[in-house]
Write a structure and sequence with these properties.
- By secondary structure, the chain is of the alpha/beta class.
- An 8-stranded parallel beta barrel has the order 1-2-3-4-5-6-7-8, surrounded by 7 helices.
- Helix 5 packs across helix 7 and helix 7 runs parallel beside helix 8.
- The N and C termini lie close together (8 Å).
- Bound molecules: 2-phosphoglycolic acid (PGA).
Length: 259
């Protein structure tokens, strides 16, 4: 059974005080271990959040890393530094970085491998733009974004990774893929991984991201190949994030009953 995972991507938001208040509210909810919960604050707030989640079920993730070991790379952060500060996860290939910061397929693949090599669990984000969907290129784009990482890092690296399908047109727009639209792409992603390694295709967790919120979380999470969510906007409000976690808990409970 795939354990549900809900990850909050705080992006470039918040002050020290806000980060503290948000994480304290999550800790107070005492989330059960049956799901995995991850928060990804900015680099600046990682150490603070790490202290506050000590001895809780909440895990720490970073939003980015540099694909190399320590050295003369001004302004960058290496994977082993993230491990040292307490991170278990790291986002890789988020569309905001691909589009706004020109991260190429090659850079994304290198970051993914650097994370796995350092013992971090990358959450590899892939997804098509509105224009690509309109031109019926969704499948080709997803396949290319995934295959370039498989080719560079090797399929075995996916044993310690999470995937996130994030249609670019749904991120921060309030537009969400319908559960059926998302399920269709999740199934494709799983199939592509299974073609390389059947067990990995079966066990890897594939999150949905793009305006997931309390109102649509349950419907999305009820789909067979959607194993959790990568949450942007709604992760900044403790009550909303917790309500999405509750929807994931229900999914896990339902799965346990049917297993
Ligand atoms: P959103 O962001 O939930 O605000 O759409 C998701 C993401 O970018 O990971």
């Amino acid at each position: 059974m795939r354990k549900a995972l809900i990850a909050g991507n705080w992006k470039m938001h918040g002050s020290k005080q806000q980060a503290e208040a948000l994480v304290q509210a999550l800790v107070a909810a005492n989330l059960p271990q049956v799901i995995d919960v991850v928060v990804c604050p900015s680099f600046l707030h990682l150490a603070l959040v790490h202290e506050l989640i000590r001895n809780t079920n909440i895990n720490l993730g970073a939003q980015n890393l540099y694909p190399g070991s320590q050295g003369a790379y001004t302004g960058e952060v290496a994977a082993d530094m993230l491990v040292d500060i307490g991170c278990k996860y790291v986002l890789v290939g988020h569309s905001e970085r691909r589009i706004l910061l020109n991260e190429t397929l090659d850079i994304v693949a290198k970051k993914f491998k650097a994370a796995v090599d350092a013992g971090l669990m990358p959450i590899l984000c892939i997804g098509e733009t509105e224009q690509e969907r309109a031109q019926q290129q969704t499948e080709a784009v997803i396949q290319q974004q995934l295959q370039s990482v498989i080719d560079f890092a090797g399929i075995e690296a996916f044993k310690k990774a999470v995937l996130a399908y994030e249609p670019v047109w749904a991120i921060g727009t309030g537009l969400t893929a319908t559960p059926a639209q998302a399920q269709q792409v999740h199934a494709l992603i799983r199939q592509q991984l299974a073609q390389n390694n059947v067990a990995i295709g079966e066990t890897i967790r594939i999150l949905y991201g793009g305006s997931m919120k309390p109102e649509n979380a349950q419907a999305l999470l009820s789909m067979q190949d959607i194993d959790g969510g990568l949450i942007g906007g709604a992760s900044l409000k403790a009550d909303q994030f917790l309500s999405i976690c509750t929807a994931a808990l229900q999914k896990n409970t339902a799965k346990q009953k049917s297993a």
